[in-house]
Give the backbone structure.
Amino acid sequence: MRIISLILLAAATFALAGAGPALAEPAKLTVYTYNSFTADWGPGPKITPIFEQRCGCKIQWVGVEDGAALLSRLKLEGKNSPADVVLGLDTSLTEEASGTGLIAPHGADLSALKLPVAWNDKDFVPFDYGYFAFMWDTQKLATPPKSLADLSAAGDAPKILLEDPRTSTPGLGLLLWLKTVDGDRAGEAWKSIAPKILTVSKSWDEAYGLFTKGEAPLVLSYTTSEAYHRMEDKTDRYKALIFPEGNYMQIEVAGMLATSQHQDLARKFLQFLVSPDFQKQIPTTNWMLPVIDIGADLPPVFGQIPQPTKALMLPSTEVAAHRAAWVKEWLEAVGQ
Amino acid sequence: MAFLEIEGLTFTYEDLVMRFDLAVEAGECIGVIGPSGAGKSTLLALIGGFERPLGGAIRVEGQDITTLRPAERPVTSLFQDFNLFPHLTVAQNVGLGRHPGLRLDAADQEHVARALRQVGLEGFEARLPGQLSGGERQRVALARSLIRHRPLLLLDEPFAALGPALRGEMLELTDRLRQAEGLTALLVTHDPNEAARIAGRTAFIAEGRVVLFDRTDRVLGSSLPEIRRYLGS
Amino acid sequence: MTAARIGLAVAAFIVAAILADYAALLWGAGGADVANLLSDRYLHRVVGFTFLEASLSALLSLAAAIPTARALARQSSFPGRRLILQLCALPMVMPSIVAIFGIVAVFGRSGYIAAMASSLGSEWRPSIYGLGGILIAHVFFNMPLAIRLLLPAWGTVPAESWRLAAQLGMSSGQVFRLVEVPLLRQYVPAAFTFVFILCFLSFAVILTLGGGPRATTLEVAIYQALHIDVDLPQGGLLALLETVACLIMVAIAWAVGQRIDFGRGQRMTGLRFDGISLGARLRDSATIVLATGFLVLPLAALLYDGLRGLLFARFDGGPLLAAMLVTLALGIPSGIIATVLGFPIAGAADRLRGRRLATVVIGIAGLAGVVASPMAIGAGIILGASGRIDLYAMAPYGVVTMNALLTLPFAVGVLRPAIARNNAQYDRLCAGLGLSGWNRFRVVDWPLLRRPIGLACGLSTAAAMGDLAAIALFGNQSLTNLTLLLYNQIAAYRLDSASGTALVLLALCLATFAAIERGVGGRGVS
């Protein structure tokens, strides 16, 4: 009899788990995004009720591993994708994404945008941005590198933690950063950086985890990481490094799918992304910078963290055209 | 002084407290019979050193062996089954009796051959136990026992799994070789006829005690209730 | 007989599903360029590295497991033996990132060993980012597994053999050479292969501890092909290559040795006499302590960090509790289904022993969860489902089903030898009594096979509880289990909270495993 009760228990658990929300009456907007966006401390839970009230609809979030996985998911699903909006790609991937023909023009009013670079993309709406920067553990290293050139100097110290450009957007970001600064000599620069690399992680999560465990004094992250540690951990221990050559930008974007069944809703959502109601949640939930001026809603600590002297970014078309080759160059320089 | 003296050897198994007293002369073959669970195999295990007694002593030729390890005792055991290592050849299995690490020189191999001849398995050196019949396997085990030249032979129902004719043959063979080598033997058996055939004296064990130890015919003909219950009238 | 047919049908279905999945990828975007792919030098290097790390990992794991299993077998009353064996089940069900952090906490540049070195005044720091780190992590995962795979071997030695060895005066070394080595020769090939395959398909460990792109395995290449380049035929072909390589190893192992027997920590069928002496006991104790230490140190680090995280960091009680419930609600059904599927498959494996094709199909199905590339399966599912099935709405069912299939190898591995032994002993009796079908199961099989069933269910449930792949695939944001919560916390800089979550996950896995093993398996000899 034990077995029967066990099976019944299993069936009950199964059924309970599967008893998701019944068919919702209001229209459902399906938004693909990365998991941390919809986590309890992410922007998702905060902005969902606001938008749902405005549009009289329901948002169904579908979480994917990370930004890079979003694009591959779209490509895999193709025209059959149930997604209405995809949120979380970044500018290094937009050209490729547009190239799939799956994205429809957003038609949103972007006059309030306040980005360090001009925004001309007709397909994608930016919703936050940040600067890549090496985070420095002041307790583990006395003098940090002062510039990219410093980092590419000879020697195998200090140790740095990097992400893999094949699997992570910060990883790709550093690749593009070096390309922008060193151009054709990027390969050489990587060869000099290689001995300092402690390890190359699959994603930012593992790298930052190892960083905070004290494995290495430097990790590739964002300037806003310092804002988090100052504001939430109340510590000055971790600082962002600004390089005179400039810091590479990452702009995260959202777009709507041409195959969407809810084109109106999708457009409304995209417009919502650049509205103050959405933008003022970004700094303390996604820990990135808002794309519009939210005035006093921006916590002061964001003004206190180091500001880059130069904002670098390669045009998306160039990235799309050369990414494979550049990754190969990286592999050869770092992977022998 | 008897060859084998067992004095007040105590052991507990589950709820049964066993206490054995026995004196065996050199060159004797002693039958050990009794109902199952009485302690027959335990007695042999205690003598062999595979179980540790709670008290009492075992002496062979006056020497106290109670605390000695199995290999140090002047004892060889033959079990009902699993006497051989299945992955070693007949020669190797017997050779273990000469050297436990199988470092055998020419003299050792000659001894192995002789032992096999004695049990009638000449030429079986290269065979594996899996290729032998039950009787042949027990003969290999017997050969190994003999090759060790230990004075005391403990036989725990070694022929129980064989057919009647074969059983008889093996008994004859064992007894013949035992006498030729001058070994003392204890034979645990559930078949009183086996005891009748080769054992001069027999011990009847019940409830962990030696109830009667006398000439075999007297034991088998005894009118003690336990024995009558066991043998059937 | 019908049970065996059911088992075969289920097995065939699983194999067909995998083949269909690969086929979908291969022909996804118009066929694959096999010749070009196979001659790519980069691929050669990747395959070579994968074989290297998998072989070394398996060799080291076994080299560590054999003496430890031997010591545990010999010292059947070693204090804490039962707990040690239960802990051995833990590494194989841990999410990789948790294990990585545990290992880094001990062996990393700022780990315990480094701290010891610096307190002794040394500048030396352990360097685990490279092949060395990969091997340490793999041995951490797989040595315990290998110990549990090998330990039952000693249980098949009759008590008489040990008595003989003692009486013949065999020394410890002679016992090893003459008794244990032939025994191991039967069990080691299968254990080696299982560990090899697990390491062959390793992914997160390789990327994080590998030290750089020099350490690229086939699974990483598949990930790149499917998720970055979205080159489906390439991904499908690499996945096929990976699976075929694994199956070849399995075939070799089948030819060389005996079946795998997961078994449980068995008490010896008879007392071992060569383990009594003080010297033997000291040596064995040292071996056991050393191995256990290697296993326990990272666990202790995780415990410490986790407690700190739970007590001192911001406590996300609500999400944690919700995630615990989700973990259990998704894990337990998976484990049960894996066991319910595994039983007929294992039974079929025994009944249809003689039929070549059936054996192959069943063998592959039984190992499907470990030889099929999870990346490829995931991509195939997305491909197949798009437009036809709403993955999001199906999420709970999908996650449970996928995890059931992924953990099936554990269940089959435990059940097959147990069922085989049971059948060998009681088939004739049951046939004579006319006992078959459900009656036979109720009266004979269930009571006698309760313990292996309990172990199978416990293992697969615990493994399913640590899942990330399936839940990430189905993307339903209301379905967050502890592993996903962990990743989300790390992504939000809440690393201390993440440590706490990791501890909760491990504790929950261990508790559930023990509860199922006891509850389903019942009490019995250890």
In short: Confidence is low (pLDDT under 50) at residues 20-24 of chain A.
